[in-house]
Structures are given as C-alpha cells and as structure tokens.
Amino acid sequence: MANQVEDRLTEELLPLLKQEHFVTLSTIDYEHGGPNVNAISWLYAVDEKAIRFSVDNRSRIIENIKKQSRAALTLIGAGSTYSISGRALILEEQMKDVPLKLALVELTVEEVRDVMFYGSRITAEPKYEKTYDREAAEKLDNQVMTAIKRE
C-alpha cells in the first residue's frame, strides 16, 4: 500500500483492528492547539469505515475531541506503519457494564496512509503486557471489548 491513500481500512488492516491492539491516538490539544499523542489498546473496527475505542472519560483525549473532532490512529502492523485519520465522535461519556469511568468513541475513517519510510518494512510488531493483576486485567479487557463491540 506504499504511497497509496485509501478512504477506508483495507482487507489486511481490518482483521488487526478487530481485536485489542497497540496503537497511538493523536488529537489536537484543546488548550494549546498542538498535537497530543496517547497509546491505547481498547479498540475495535466495526467495519472498514468505523473504529471504536475506549478511554478514561476524564482523560485529555475526551476534552480534545469535544473541542476538535479531527484525530488519527497510528497502527504498526501488516509489515508497515499506517496513519488512519478522520473525525472522532463521543458515543457514550460513560460506558455501561464497565466498572471504570470509560468513554466510547468512534472514529469515522476518512483516510488511510502507509507512512513507513522508503525501502523498509516492519519485521516485528509492538508487544505489551498488562502490569497489574493478570486475572483482573483479563476480566476488564473482556468487559470493555464486549461493550465496544455492542450496538
């Protein structure tokens, strides 16, 4: 997909975003107008035009989206690095059936770009592990992902 711009998620990207995955989320800071970047993992591609994600409803991300809906996800996977941008909409300020104060946000995909530098490819995707109680993390992950996929 190098040097191509798509208006939707491709067949190779869609499965990566149908599960919890490490991505970065870029929003426009509501106070100073500069970039604000956060790492998130609770996300789910509803289809090729919509990605839902969940973040703490007290986070700066939510305030940023309320002021300016433009946002971009950076995904490392499928052998490259992708920028997925569009408009974010807060669907729920407090998700139901989730014990934490989490908001549900949907990004309407407007543009997908392969942003990997020329002549290279990703040979290993980022990996992470939850550093708190493994059972509690698994239970919470299941609750959040179930709530994201609902509707």
UniProtKB/TrEMBL annotation:
| Pfam families cross-referenced by the UniProt entry | PNPOx_N
Q: Which SUPFAM superfamilies match?
A: FMN-binding split barrel
* Top-rank taxon: Bacteria
Q: Which residues form the Pyridoxamine 5'-phosphate oxidase N-terminal domain?
A: 9-112
Classification via InterPro entries: Pyridox_Oxase_N, Split_barrel_FMN-bd
Question: Gene3D superfamilies from the xrefs?
Answer: Electron Transport, Fmn-binding Protein, Chain A
Q: Please report the name of this protein according to its UniProt entry.
A: Pyridoxamine 5'-phosphate oxidase
This protein's species is Evansella caseinilytica
Q: What is the lineage of its organism?
A: Bacteria, Bacillati, Bacillota, Bacilli, Bacillales
